[in-house]
Amino acid sequence: MTQPFPFSAIVGQDEMKQAMILTAIDPGIGGVLVFGDRGTGKSTAVRALAALLPPIRAVAGCPVNAERLADCPDWAEIGSKRVVKKPTPVIDLPLGATEDRVVGALDIERALTRGEKAFEPGLLARANRGYLYIDEVNLLEDHLVDLLLDVAQSGENVVEREGLSIRHAARFVLVGSGNPEEGELRPQLLDRFGLSVEVASPTDIQQRIEVIRRRDAYETDTTAFLKRWRAADTRLRKKILAARAAIAALETPEQTLVDCAELCVALGSDGLRGELTLLRAARALAAFEGADTVTRAHLRKIAPSALRHRLRRDPLDEAGSAIRVARTVDELFGAFATAAE
Amino acid sequence: MEDEAHSAWARAGAAAAVFAVDPAALGGLWLRARSGPARDRFLAQLAALATYRKIHPNIADAQLFGGLDLSATLSAGHRVHTAGVLGARGVICLTMAERCPGGLAARLGQAVDAGTHGVIALDEGAEDDEAAPASLTERLGLFVALDGIGAGPLAPPPTTADEIAAARALLPSVTADAQALEALTVLAAELGIASLRAPLQAVAAARALAALAGRQAVASDDIRLAAELTFSHRATVFPEEAQPPAEEPEAPEAPEQPEDRAQGEEELPPIPQEILLEAVRAALPPGLLASLAAGRAARGRGAAAGSGAKRKGNRRGRPLPSRPGRLGSGAPVDLVATLRAAAPWQPMRRASAPAGHLLHIRPSDIRLKRYEERSDRLLIFTVDASGSSAMARLAEAKGAIELLLGEAYARRDYVALVAFRGTEAELLLPPTRSLVQTKRRLAALPGGGGTPLAAGLRTAFELAGQVRGRGMTPSLALLTDGRANIALDGRADRRAAGADAERLADACRAEGLPALVIDTATRPQRGLEALAHRLGAAYLPMPRADAHGLSAAVTGALGG
Predict the structure, then answer these.
(1) Contact yes or no for A215 and B194 at CB 8 A
(2) How far, CA to CA in Å, does A66 sit from each of A71, A172, A249, B323?
(3) pLDDT at position B553
(4) Which is catalytic among the residues A47, A167, A273, A324?
């Protein structure tokens, strides 16, 4: 893979793009799960996001991409004190990864050649302050899932093995993609994802042709294609940066909190994570759209992504969970956008 | 017949050539054929054009991705990595692809997506529902089916390696115009192919075909042949044909013609969609479409069944013969087998090694233990304890259950007990192996009230979903007289109750829950038999079910 497909050039798939942009604005939303048919561009979008994200500032040579020297873990041997700009890390967690590779392990080379006990950081360290991407997340081995659940929850990776006792920060946005036909996710893991989107192949012929046309143009002349879309990607990046700055000043009226709570109660989602994510995502969306307060319109737009995967499964409801969320939103807020929104 | 074989071979030859020209863009080639002369001949053709590395479905991750070579590292004093099969770009040939586990399919799929590897999947599936995993075949652009086709003495001469090299050189400058893209995309949509990978791969195939013919631009013949090669196996629907079927034999001749018409066809005439459709249809061996669809459906059910019946672990379960392996992969070493493997070599090794060692063991001697673990089965008894049932034969039903319990106990199965009466169902006994406890609960089971059949089914369905998550394999045994009269919401409405029960039966069937329905009414109930059919369950009226018949039925219906 040399140059990823530009994010702005992805045709359709608005919900998926929106969810990814929101996690870029506020990583605290907690990850995106993309479920859908094969060949709908799930992986393409994640790789595109990586290229779109603004760079981060990190201490040169720090294995966990710490921003300040004080935050670097004590086991890391850092030569320089320089702070450099580097691209936001987007780390692939391949299905075949061993536990050693994920959490880190004893550095065997040094142990053997120099007789020193040193820690060799794993993928979780590299993903700190960035993204961890798992393709076919529903096929991930159980023991890796357990491990990820714990780290994603605590934001810290603790390694107690082979005589090592190491801990380091591991805060990352979890992005998973998969095909529901191949198995479902455990509810515990589902809950860890802030937003969940379902993608399907476009049914509109013109849209399909446009997808093929762009993809073909990208593959035949990558440089020219990237050049054509660079401006759009830059605009989007600036908008994300502006939203990040604006989010702190955003007003959240009492009524929005009430709406969030009512919606979650009506849908019967377990726990309070639903409310929290819904609110955070709505704030990020409001900031992205340049609004100064969070309104019902934002909630309405983000509710399916934020709540779809937190519902109890109902074997009799043939409608998808997204439709159930939309239905409940309509019942609570009224079917049409009102003036209050 | 000969014509058919001829065109099939022409197509297969074209597929091999196209794949050899651009393996990465096409993703791969799915060869569905039993082993035999036809397959051997095709593979010989392919091997002459592309070099590939073979892997088998049980390949370990260390072999696939590479890893630390522990013994070499220890002796060398610095880290030695073994390069995995996926380490270098190239073509991978997966043998026995029909036995490929989902995990490997996903790993190979990722390699294909990254554009670094092309995969040849040799699918020897004999039965309709036996095929390579869909997550892999979806990414493989080309499809060749050779079953029922002779080795073909009339086949055109295969493409030579020189022609492939020339085509590869030409490929970057071959263009496909907007019309070609559009035609292929529209055709894919008309054939009911949802994935957008299909038209992309078809475009790549058309380009490769043009390059093979020495053209700078994709011509209409390239498009037709590309559609044949890449769409035929993915098609889910064929639109009603406008032409009479008599015209069909015209299409298969297309593949032989590109050579003749190669020159001077710069202008691309619009291709009628029907001709493309016919070409794709003709490329499809008769009956294959239906059988592949059946296979897909079966696979979907199987996948929904979650962690299946059998798992090969290396920690517990029934021991299997040990296999050669490496230290450090986490599996326990079979010491006896290792010593046995090392024994014949001892004199030779002692002679060649410096003195002092009593026993010489090399890494190649290491044998690892393997176990086959069967996941636990759970039999969910869903018992009708309503008034109508109680009046008649609840006691008899209890007797039948006790009998089944004895069977379950002998087979080390777990059992759970769901009873429904009045307006709701209740999980009387969560999954257990305790026979005594189950019998006690059963004896204390009171009867009376309405028949909320749907509620009972729902409770059983939910329980089945839960235990699947824990790795059990649930089955359902429903004992009722079938007179459902309480709907899911608790209303006494016979019609709604029946409809709810039917919907739940559909849900159970969609989840692939094996079931058995025992009719406890004095006379067999038509409605209940229909419900059993909906459930995909065996139906057994109790008047005819004696002790022996019951246990035989359960064993048969629930798969031994």
Answers:
(1) no
(2) 6, 13, 26, 46
(3) 66
(4) A273
pLDDT score at B276: 64
Q: Is the pTM of this model over 0.90?
A: no
Structure tokens at B350: 């002692």
Q: What angle separates helix A14-25 from helix A222-246, to the nearest 10 degrees?
A: 50
Is pLDDT larger for residue B195 or for residue A39? B195
Which of A216, A218, A312, A314 has the most B C-beta neighbours within 10 Å, making it the best mutation to test the interface with B? Answer: A216
Asked if residue A293 lies in contact with residue A41, where contact means CB atoms within 8 angstroms, the answer is no
CATH number of the structural domain spanning residue A276: 1.10.8.80
- pLDDT for A284: 92
Asked whether this complex has an ipTM greater than 0.90, the answer is no
8 Å CB contact between A78 and A69: yes
Name the β-bridge partners of A251: A293
The verdict on B441 touching A (C-beta cutoff 8 Å) is no
The residue segments making up the domain with residue A309 are 250-333
pLDDT score at B392: 57
Alpha carbons within 13 A on the beta-carbon side of A124: 29
Closest to B181 in 3D by CA, of B214, B142, B223: B223
Q: What is the CATH number of domain B377-557?
A: 3.40.50.410
A18 found inside a domain: yes
In sign, the C-alpha dihedral spanning B99, B101, B102, B106 is negative
From B471, which residue of chain A is nearest by alpha-carbon distance?
A: A142
Domain-wise residue ranges, chain B: 2-162+171-282, 312-374, 377-557
Q: Is B295 on the interface with A (CB under 8 A)?
A: no
Vertex B203 angle, CA B199 and B206, to 5°: 135
My answer on whether A63 and A158 are in the same domain is yes
With CB atoms and an 8 Å threshold, state whether A315 touches B504. yes
Furthest-apart CA atoms within chain B: distance in Å:
90
CA distance A255 to chain B (A): 34
Nearest to B73 among A96, A112, A141 (CB): A112
Q: Look at A14-23, A34-43, B236-245 and tell me which has the smallest mean pLDDT.
A: B236-245
Query: Best interface-test mutation with B: which of A44, A139, A203 has the largest number of B CBs within 10 A?
Result: A139
Facing B507 at nearest CB: one of A109, A183, A316: A316
